[in-house]
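note to self — DONT lose this again. spent like an hour looking for the file last time. sequence + predicted structure for the chain T wanted, 438 res
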Amino acid sequence: MDEDPQLFQQFKGHKDAITASHFSPNGKQVVSCSLDHSLMLWKFQSPDSKAYRYTGHTGPVLDVQFSRSGSLVASAARDSTVRLWVPDLKGESQELKAAAGQAAVRSVQFSPDNSKLVTGADDKAVKVWTVHRTKFISSFTEHTNWVRCARWSPDGRLLVSSSDDRTVKVWDVSSNTCIHTFQEPKGFGNQVAFHPSGSCVGVATTCGTVRVYDIRAMKLQQLYTAHEGATASIAFHPSGNFLASGAADSKVKIYDLLETCTLYTLSGHQGGVNSVSFSPKGDFLSSGGQDKQLMVWKVNLESSSSSKPARQEEARQRMAEMSVNESIEPPNRNLAQEFRRGQEKENRRPEEQEGLAKVVRQLEGMNSKLSTLTQTVLLMEKRLGLVEEQVRLLSHKYVAEVTEEVQLFHDVGYRLFHNWLLTMFGYLALALLYWLRR
């Protein structure tokens, strides 16, 4: 290992605990937010290390994120709002009411294409908004308690969210449906993050563990128990080979996902660590905590790995193929063993290969039948729609005819009543004349 992580910069400026931090896309700035109701933008690589303070929220700010282009910063706060900031000297912002009632908004993130925002709030909902004009698009409402965090997948097709209801849910954005729910055995997820490959998600839990779930096999893939307090934040390294976490034990941990071990422990905070974030190139790591300090660490993780680049790339591709049975053995497996097992499977006997080919052909036949069945169902749905339209037209015609008959009956009744009144008045007039002549 060539070089251990070192403290690069230490910033003081917030008046209360730091809750989140995030690097700009160019890696030259880092933004932080705090319980002091403010954001601070730090130019940590400039000679004079300038910092800007942005105020506007009326409650503690709980999350902050740069847009993928770096032209905007989004913040989420306990005042039920999200604000979009222009990260310059003026720091102008636009407010979005993002939660019902007085519910706190706990997380916010831009979509990969910068066109949308996702928020998670104490109103138990995950919501999607447009960035332009900040219009509401859709919501996901299957959580039964506060939503702690919601994040986009790298391709923007999925969302993952964690909640105080002790679940982590994976959502399909196009269909607005939950495609899988992971149950947390202890505690709940404080924060979630997608692996750069999009094949798995990491969860920082209140019981002090870091869990990595395979969202293709829908199983727990890796489990780390290095912290002695509740884990508050996690971040995947851009290479996908490493993971960082911050916890209430005041430590920052860096894990090697290929060797499934704790690689580094960073000490420096005088209180719980609430936020960790890697720079886009992975050469810096920020951490913020209860001590009101933002620390930027210089890390050189790629050179710290003893694996060759080819093996690292192979490991990233195979991470999604691994799955574990949590009830049988700990999921903190050695990936080298998994790779050897994969090679053994690839070297199967010809008879096994022929058997697999037969199974594949059977599956293809089943898929063809399912496709035919799907087309039949779609045709039936179309015909049902036509029948519904005919029923609707007939019902409208029937209502029109009944309305016409009621109107005719009303007109006839009115005329009869009018004639009856005239007749009665005539009789009364005759009776009156007769009485006067007497």
